[in-house]
Structures are given as C-alpha cells and as structure tokens.
Amino acid sequence: MKNRTTRWVEWTRSALLALALATTASAVAQTAANRLEPPPLASARGDDPSSDSMRELREQVRELHEAIDELRSDWQRARAETSDLRRELDEVRAGTAPRNAVLKRAVVRLETRNPASAAVLPANSAASFLQNAAPVAQEEVEKEQRQDDSQNEKLDSKKAERAATLEEEYQLLIGKVDDQYQTKVESGSKYRLRLSGIVLMNLVSNQGVVDAIDLPQVAYGRQPGDSGGSFGATLRQSEIGFETFGPTVAGAKTSANLQVDFGGGFATIPNGFNSGLLRLRTATLRMDWPNTALVVGQDALFFSPNSPTSFASLAIPALSWSGNLWSWVPQIRVEHRVDLGNESSLLFQGGILDPVNGEIPGASYYRGPGAGESSRQPAVGSRIAWTRQILGQPLRLGAAGFYSRQDYGFGQNVDSWAAMSDIEIPLSSRLSLSGKLYRGRALGGLNGGIGTSAVFSGPPATAGTEVRGLNSVGGWTQLRYRPANKWELNAAYGMDNPYASDLKYFPYSQPYNTSLARNLGSFANLIYRPRSDLLFSAEYRHLTTYMTAGEGNSAGQLNLMMGVLF
Fold this sequence. Notes:
By secondary structure, the protein is an alpha+beta fold. The relative contact order is 0.09. It has 8 helices and 22 strands. The strands form 3 sheets. Strands 1-5-6-7-8-9-10-11-12-13-14-17-18-20-21-22 form a 16-stranded antiparallel β-barrel. Strands 16-15-19 form a 3-stranded antiparallel sheet, with no helix packed on it. Strands 2-3 form a two-stranded antiparallel sheet. The chain folds into 2 domains: 2-146, no CATH class; 182-565, Porin. The chain has helices at residues 2-36, 42-45, 49-93, 97-113, 115-120, 126-180, 371-374, 500-505, and strands spanning 193-207, 209-210, 219-220, 229-234, 239-249, 252-261, 279-288, 292-300, 328-341, 344-353, 379-390, 393-407, 413-426, 431-441, 454-456, 467-469, 471-484, 487-498, 508-510, 516-531, 534-547, 552-565.
C-alpha cells in the first residue's frame, strides 16, 4: 500500500509540473503569435509604405524581446512553483497511506464536480490544492468510515461463529502440546520411557439381575427376595501403561510396552470389591522395519482387532459374549504392509498363539495344562486387510482365520476354528460404520459361544463321555457420529448365538452351564472430551439373554463416567 501511494504522489507531482509548463508555454506562444501577426496593408490604410514598414519592424522586434523576457520570467516562476509543490507533496507523502489514497479520490471527485476548478489546480500551489481538496477528502473519510462500519456489522456474526470454532481448535491444540510437553520418566537404561494411563470412575445403576453389577455381560432371571436392581461405583477399570523405546537392531526400531489394570479379582477383606487386584493385560516387544514388524508377547487378537467404543467397558471389551471375539493371549506374529498407491495398502498378518479354551485355573499358585495346551500344538491365526483413506478416515476391509486343537482326554479331541471379517466404513467426514462377523466352533477361549468351548454328553472327566465343540455364530456393528471435535456419539448392537442342536443333546459344558442359548447386547453412549486428557461419558446398556427353555431375561444399566488420562 505504501509503494502504491508513493508512486501515485510522484505521478501527481510530475503531471502537475508538466501541465503547468504546458499551460504557460501555450499562453506565451499564443501571445507571441498575436503580436507577430502582420498588420493590415498600407494601401488599405492610405499611409506611406516605406516609413510605416520600418516603424512596424522595429515595433515587432521590441515586442519579440518582451515576449522572450516574459517567457523566461514565466518559466522561472513555474520552476519556483514546481519546487514549492514538490516540497508540499513531500510533506503529504510523509503522512499516512490512507490519507494519500483519500486525496487521490478527492481530486477525481473535484474534477467531476467542477471541471473549471480542476483546470486551474495544476497552476495553483500545493496549499491551494490541499485547500480545495480538503472538504472532498473529509467526505471521503466519512464515507469510508460508514462503509467500514457496515462491513464490520456484517462480519460480527461471522466472527462470533468463527471464534467458537477457533476456541475449540485452540483447546485441542493446547491439549496436544501438553501431551508433548512432559517431563521424561527416569528409567534404569538410557532409553526413553513413557508413562500413560487413565484414572476412571464409574457410577452404575442396574435394573434387573446381571452376572456382574459393574461389568454385566448376561442377564439372569429374578430370584425370590431379589430387589430387582443394584447400584455401585468402581475405579477398578483404571489403567497404567509403560512404553519404552530401545535401540535400532538390524535396521529395526525396537520398543516394548506393558499395560495393567485392577480387574484381576477382589481382595478377601472387608469391602474387598473396592480393592481390585492388579492384572496383566498386555506386554509386548516389537521390532519395526519400514514395512514389516515382528511382535512377541501378550496382546489382543490380531485377527480380531476392533471392538466397540465404550468407557463403561475397559476391563472387558464391550459386547463381550454378545458377538465380540477378544482375548489377551501370548503370541508371536509377523506383519507386513504393501503400499498400493492412491493412499491404499494391504496388510498381511500371521502368527502362533497360546491355545486357550476359556477354562478357569484349577489352582492359584501353579499352572496345569488346559485342553488347548494338552493338544501339544500352538494355535495359529492369519489376517489380510485392505485399507484406503476416504473422507479423512480409513476405509478398512479385513478377513481372518483361526485354528486350534483341544484335547479333553480319553481320546476326545476338538478342532477349534473361526472364520471372521471386520469392517470400518466412513459414511461421511463425521459418520462411520464398523463391525465384525464370525462363524466358528469351540471359541470359549476367545469369548465366543457365550464363553463356552465344548459340550459333553455326560460328566467331562468320565471315560466314554462324548464331547463336541460348540458351534456358534455372532457379530456386532457400531455407528459412530462426531458432531464436533470434542463430542462423540456411539450406538452398537451385538449377538452371540450357540447352535441349539449342540446344546440340546449335550447338557454338560466346560466351564459354564449350557442353559445360555443366545445373548443380545446393545448400548448407546455420549462421550465429551473438553481436553485431550479429560473425558465425561454417559452410557445406557441393555442385555437380553435367552435360555435353552426359550424364555428370555432382560436387564439394563446406566453408567456415568469421568476419566483423566495421563
């Protein structure tokens, strides 16, 4: 703006100077032409031709000298006025840029209103120019002020809306900065150690009879004398995590993490329900190359990766026993990613796992083999997933398989297997759909079949008892909506359905009773995160459990949560 104003002032100065010189020169030239015009013929006037000619010639020479002197005087006067004009315009240029722009528009308006005055402006001094332009300039200033006020009024509403959005984005940014600005946790090695976790408070109110008042999975019928409901509070779903980053070995970045919570049972002391025991959740070691990773340790099922979103169920993933296959199992797996371009890729996963079957340990201090370990072979799993970025979210389609062998003694073996698929589909920039389906057999160790792996025709420890792996089918789906960065709404539904034919002819099960024929679970929650390290949530969950006799039991739970992440 300053450069444009400077150029305009210089242009105005040059134009005024040139116009003044041109006007003066034109006037002088016209005067000289009039004076040098030849007189009327002598014969026409009746005078003496010779004497009159000499007299007229001398007069013309004298007037020519006077014209030259007048031209010189006018040029000197124009030069002086030009110098004064340059000085005064330099003073104007030393002022603010908006004033120069206003003066420029004032000249245009003055020329439009009064062409006569505009014609004499270049010949006048800068003071006269400013004196004539000042009223117009004042009008321009007032007009601009009115225009600015009108524009400001129009922008006020937009500014108010934008201010709320900027405040929200600012708070999120501050939270992310706070996450990064942390004091380094001291460790016994030179490598960096990071501490994380959540302190979570749950207030629960149940209507109906459930298996666990804070983490219900199935609904039971009301017994005589029952109140028909319950209320409680717990912090045993709080978690602590440690992550360390080790050296680079063979081109791979090494790291390890450990995660624990307090969902390992209850202390045998008064009010022991409020003294949850420390429990190992996951503990893994990783070696990460650019496109390949080796993972060793206890981790979630890599072939069943996603779970519904719920802070009411951290100790046990949501919709467990309602179609959600999950477990934390010791495993060794390899992952390899292939980039396909266009923001898409393929992920190949495969590994071996501890062959769990969902049995409860028979002792507290030593470990005996379960049916899976007795088979003397590991479980195996694999998964392939295609991912592509759409609408700022991942579109993911996965397919997986699992196989394990279980030995129940007396030559009774069961093949445990599952075929699974998982999806994540963005429906818009704020709406997404996710879910999982499975069909399998003897999946109690993966929390399928309502926690049951095998059914028996008689007592399991008796020779001649026939055993069969419990067939089941199930899955879940979730709809997620994020109306704003701090808000999230989720609604999910799941079902686990063991085959009635297996339950009807085999009345005994391992380890739970076979009266549970089908389990339906659903929930809806609202999550509010005013900061990245603070959350509030409310959730309502509903359970319907059917027995083999056909009757169904229902229960509902309202869960209010507050959590602080660190």
